[in-house]
Each structure stands twice: as structure tokens, then as C-alpha cells.
Amino acid sequence: MALMQLTGQLICRTAEERRVILTHLPEHIRRTVREPGCLYFHVGQTPDPMVWTVSEGFASQQAFDFHQTRTARSKWMAATRRIRREYQLREALPEIRPEFPDDAKAIFLLNRDNFEREDEAQFIDDLRADGALALSVVAKLERAYLGHVAFAPMIGNPKIWALAPVVVRKPCRNQGIGTALVKAALEIVREKGVDGIICPSEQPFFKRFGFTREDAASFTSPSQKTGLIGLNLRAAPMDGRALKWHGAFEKLA
Questions:
Q1: pTM of the model
Q2: What is the rounded distance in angstroms from the CA atom of residue 165 to the CA atom of residue 24?
Q3: Which of 150, 145, 112, 111 is nearest to 133 (CA)?
């Protein structure tokens, strides 16, 4: 499965065609953005009043096919069928990069919507507010936020970082986005000279990156409900006996 991206133009030849678009477009947009697999949907007027730019993103080919099937039966298609369309459809890869300052609200919403509560979203905001967000990485497709991962330094040794919850937007799961996101983040971690990572989770997902129980053996979990795994990035064993978690981890636990 792959992300799908459609771009192009909607071109009117007459004033009547333009009126039809103005009449039916708002409802078409409302229905499309409610589709589970729609990541974003934007139709914008160009300087030419007879031409609109179209930019659409979908979580998979299946999601795009669902959109096409629904649209084919819609009032929008019945009214605009003869209006000229110049579209290009292609598979797309997400952009993966460290967060920018204006990403904070979108990261909050991504975590809130995917965990269906605000705890994890507020957890990231708390780390950021305390200056303890050592690294925050997002996966995006154009304006759509698809995934997020973050790290915070352990108290007592800022060269050992704790891994925050990894989130991938629900329709985009099982496509390798989470793996690509964590892999890219760990490359940045290594570049920063971090000694190791501690993860308050024993999910099998993390084992593919080299995390083991043995590397976290000397650390104490922030919660009795979760075990620990670690990723040692240096030759010497990591010693967590004197280290503490940022308070946000204990609050989340």
C-alpha cells in the first residue's frame, strides 16, 4: 500500500460552469474530508477566475478508489461531469523532518485523535514547555500530519534519552510510515552523540531497531504497568541506577 496524491486543475469554459462549481464545491469538500482515508483535500481559485487548482491526498489506493466510487454517484459529479479536468495521480512518500515551531498544534491534534484522549498530546506539550523535548520528528504529506515521535533526556544523564509514544495516523498504519519515522529519528539521535535510548514499552515493533530488555536492565520504569527496553549506542553498558524520568513520563503512566 502507498500514499496517493492527486494534483491538477479544474478548468471552466463558460460562466455557467463556474457558477456550477461555486454552487456544488462546498458540499463536495465537506463530504470528501469526512472520508476516513482522505488526508487532505484542497481546491483553490487561481488568478484566473475560470481555473481552480486541485490538491488531494489519500492514505492508500483503496482510500482513493473509495473516494472515486463515492464521487461518481454524487451530486457534484452529476453537475460537473462535463467540466474539464487535468489531473495527475501518483504514489507519494511522506516528508520526515524535525518539528518546526508552528507544528505544535498539529502534533497535539494528531496525538489526541489517535489515542482518543488528551493525555499523550498534553504529555508532548509538557515536555516542550519544560525545555525537555530533546527531539521531535514528524511525518507529513503536504499539509497532512501522518506521524510523530519524540525524545526527552533522562534526568541525571542528558546523553541518555527516553522515547516518547510513537503515533501514526490511523488510516496510514501498516504502510511502513512508523518504521521510516523511527529510523529517521534514530539517525538524528546518533548524529547528536546520544549514548542510548530507553523506551517505556515492550512492544515487538521496537525490536527491529535493536532495542532489547538487556540494555534497559539497570533502569527503573516510570510505571509498574510497563516494562522497559533499551538501545545502547555506545560500547559501555548503560547505567540507569541514578537516573530519573522527566515528571511528564510518570504523569502519563
A1: 0.91
A2: 41
A3: 150
Residue 3, H or E segment: strand 3-11
Q: What share of the chain has pLDDT > 70, as a percent?
A: 99
Phi-psi region of 193 (alpha: psi -120 to 50; beta: other; left: phi over 0): left
Domain architecture of the chain: domains with CATH: 3-92 (3.30.70.100), 95-252 (3.40.630.30)
Chain-centre distance of CA 15, in angstroms? 41
Sequence-ordered list of residues with C-beta below 8 angstroms from that of 36, at least 6 positions apart, any chain = 59, 63, 170, 171
pLDDT band at 190 (very low <50, low <70, confident <90, very high): very high
Q: For residues 101 and 124, what is the distance between their CA atoms, to the nearest angstrom?
A: 13
When pLDDT is cut at 50, 70 and 90, the band that residue 226 belongs to is confident
Over residues 194-219, the mean pLDDT reads 95
Q: Identify residue 213 by its one-letter amino acid code.
A: R
C-alpha cell at 186: 534514530
